[in-house]
């Protein structure tokens, strides 16, 4: 099942509100009314949360690792403080088939680090010994899919003297592919994705 990015952000936003309200209601601040009190009419847009300032203070102190990354706030910025979080996971056999075990974590702006709960890495062949070599792409045919999007990928139709039409590509993406080809000596097979495909359909194709 594919989960949309907005669903991840919505979950973290909801969980932030829950944790902040929990902090507010369990704090020892002298609150004469209920910590969840509102004033105004029963109509939702005319109701106001009485302790909004205290709630914002609780939100600013909230910090946790959410499904969209590290959640942390500051009065000085409108975006999340550490904007990037990645988890490198090792695919390992398990009783239920395959499991994805985190072995490295990355928090911007620091570097990769081993998780607090360190997990072993199972290498191909179900061995715990890291391979001594590395994958080499020299002479390997690589299918590279591109999307037409100027100035990154520009598609030109060229008609030769015999009337034959050929497709030529240029742009920043093609310059990058050419540079990588020179460095790694692979054989690129450029394929243009149909314009009616979504990004996910393009990746899966």
TrEMBL record:
InterPro entries: Peripla_BP_I. This is Uncharacterized protein. SUPFAM superfamilies: Periplasmic binding protein-like I.
């Amino acid at each position: 099942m594919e989960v949309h990015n907005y669903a991840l952000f919505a979950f973290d936003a909801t969980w932030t509100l829950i944790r902040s309200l929990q902090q507010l209601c369990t704090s020892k601040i002298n609150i004469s009314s209920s910590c969840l009190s509102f004033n105004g009419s029963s109509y939702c847009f005319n109701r106001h949360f009485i302790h909004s300032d205290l709630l914002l203070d609780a939100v600013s102190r909230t910090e946790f690792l959410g499904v969209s990354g590290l959640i942390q706030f500051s009065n000085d910025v409108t975006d999340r403080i550490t904007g990037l979080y990645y988890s490198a996971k090792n695919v390992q056999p398990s009783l239920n088939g395959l499991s994805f075990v985190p072995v490295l974590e990355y928090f911007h702006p620091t570097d990769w680090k081993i998780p607090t709960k360190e997990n072993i890495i199972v290498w191909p062949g179900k061995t715990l010994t890291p391979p001594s070599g590395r994958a080499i792409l020299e002479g390997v045919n690589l299918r590279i899919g591109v999307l037409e999007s100027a100035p990154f990928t520009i598609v030109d139709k060229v008609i030769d003297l015999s009337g034959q039409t050929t497709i030529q590509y240029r742009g920043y993406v093609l310059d990058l592919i050419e540079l990588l080809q020179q460095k790694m000596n692979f054989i690129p097979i450029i394929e243009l994705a149909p314009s009616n495909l979504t990004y996910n359909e393009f990746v899966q194709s």
